Amino acid sequence: MSKVSSKIQVDKLSKFFNFTVVWILGIVLTLFVGVISIEGSLSSTVDGITAKTTKVAVSNFIPVVGKILGDAVDTVIGCSNILKNAVGIIGVIVIIGICILPIIKLAILMGLYYLAGAICQPIADEKIVKLLEQMGGTFKMLLAIMCSVSTMLIVGTTLVIKITNSGLMYN
Question: How far is residue 59's CA from residue 53's CA, in Å, rounded to a whole number?
Answer without folding.
Answer: 10
